[in-house]
Amino acid sequence: MSSKFNPSKLMMLGSLKSRLLLGLSCALLLLAALVLGMAWQVGKTMVQETNMAHLRYEANLIADEITQQVEHRFQALDRLSDVIGVSNNAQWLSHQLGRNDALLAWFDAIVISDTQGRILSDWPVVQGRAGLETQELEYFKTLKGTRRPYVSEPFVGRASDIPMVLISVPRFDNAGQFAGFIGGVVSLDSSGLFNRLATIRLGSKGYAAVVTATGKVLYHPDRSLINNADFDSKASPLLDLALDGWQGDGVGRLLDGRMGLQSYSQVWPASWVVGLYLPTEQAQLPLSGFIHKLGWIWVVIALLMMPGLWWLLARILAPLNKLEAQIGDVGLGRRAYVDLETNMQELEQVATTFNRVEGERQQLVGHLQEREAFLDSVLNASPQGMFVADFGGNITYMNPALLDVLGIEANMPMEAWLEQIHIDDRSGAKDMWMHSLKTGNDYVRQLRFIRSDKEMLWLDIHARVVMLTQGGHSLGLVGVVKDITERREQEALQRWEAEHDPLTGLLNRRGFERRLEEAFADFQKTSTPSALLLFDLDHFKPINDEGGHALGDEMLRRIAQVVAWEVRRSDHVARQGGDEFGVLLPSCTLGQAERIAESLRQAVSEVSVVHEGKEYTVTLSIGVTCFDETDTTVDAALSRADAASYDAKGEGRDSVVVKLPKAQDPMTLFE
Hints:
The protein has 671 residues and is an alpha+beta fold. The protein has helices spanning 16-84, 90-99, 138-146, 195-198, 237-242, 280-283, 285-316, 318-332, 345-381, 400-406, 414-418, 423-439, 485-499, 509-526, 541-566, 590-605, 634-650; strands at 109-113, 119-123, 150-151, 155-156, 163-172, 178-187, 207-212, 217-219, 248-253, 259-267, 272-279, 385-389, 395-398, 443-450, 456-467, 474-483, 530-538, 572-577, 580-586, 608-611, 614-617, 619-626, 655-658. Strands 1, 2, 3, 4, 5 and 6 form a 6-stranded antiparallel beta sheet that branches. A 5-stranded antiparallel beta sheet has the order 8-7-11-10-9. A 5-stranded antiparallel beta sheet has the order 13-12-16-15-14. The chain is flat, with a radius of gyration of 50 Å.
């Protein structure tokens, strides 16, 4: 065996050497995948903890800075409140605001209101702002109720069209009662509240945001979200939790649907929440690059190792080639047994086992030849149809009796005569055959076979696995085929006679009741509507009395033909006994059933028989009903239809009466 490495041989995976090399390569790849996977998991945890610590630090730092900004503004407004006191003189208040013009470094505008929320003065003065009523606005109600400094919900300035908030403190009179408020309007764009957010660097996709406790966005890189009523905080579960007062960090879904690291900190004086966000893929980007490089290193190492592995396997498997050559010689008759000199215990065991199996095979071949000769004689002489199949499922022999029954030639391909099995039986017969081959169970099946002359046969097939006495090896299956066509036809005739009236050919009471039960079961399962007609013949007795039973039988046969002609092909007509008839109308509404009943009544009224010059006719009194959800058995519907038939007779006969269940019958309202 050549030990020279040839890459083209790697594609020949039929050789043991190639498969072993492939197995070793797969093991290396699996080891590489395991190492890379562990590195990825450990690295991902470390990267996440590091980034989370950074986000937590930044979020707390930003929240502290914004808290100081808000508190400084509260303190400035408190000092201004101490300066102006409780005076509501608009001119004096404007004068004081002008003197404190330095507050505009903190605010875009300052307003002062009285106890009722009316703006008394503002600075800088804006036409129309003085005199505004604020008592119905949320920030005035909150200030008056809590009597504590408050930051309003964001709003858009009427003149500037810029999002703003109102930072306000309450005013108190000498008695300590609420006397209005002093508020500073702060622009969310230019006030400096969120200057710290603009300096944060969280990679190319990380960002910071500030929202109110009610879910209004104050700061966000996407300017369209600021003060947007359509903003849905529930899209991010951690944010929704932070709006309820929680502060902390975790991994969750961001507003855009991506997963990311999140950290939240509260700005308590303003009821704001600071959030820092870093998408997971951004956080893991350095780790992904490292794992990618490490993977390529593994690939290069594996490729460098393959020539050495190929040479090593060639050395190890050299004795296997010798074993292969000796086994080939045994098969050609050049050797009687394998004689392998090697220090590999596994190959020695293979050689010993092969020699033992070869000895047994020679004995089995001798027995098999004797048994085949005996079996051929038995099968050819048997008058019973028989066949033999190998354990692959292919029928290898059919005796003359079976060929004669099936009407086929011995050389006819198996695929051709299998197509002559009735299409409704073909799939089931094949599935059962494959099951018997797999499990070793007997094959027992009855099926229809269409001969070449179009005659249909019913065949009973019984096949059994044949086992050898030595070693329990299977030779295949031997089967017996019986022609049971005559028996099946007799059974079908008996079944028909058991459920049909011999006089009219209609269903008898037993057949009718069976179909009623089947229709009622369908109704209970799928609510498929079915209607029921019951009737007997009016004026039938004089026909029997005056013309005899032969004339009565003739009238019954004619009526049966007319009724069967008038109903649908799917309907079931029965003669239940004497002159009593029933019709089951599956998948039929009550309205359709009533129209069919009318057509039956009209058609039967035209049927007549003649005896000694006298013409006899009959009429129908038909009761109509349908299955109902309140019915627990078929008898309930039969009772309604029977009662309706009696009602039809009571109304003068030759009529149709529809009877509904009591729950639906409008006449029950008057009972």
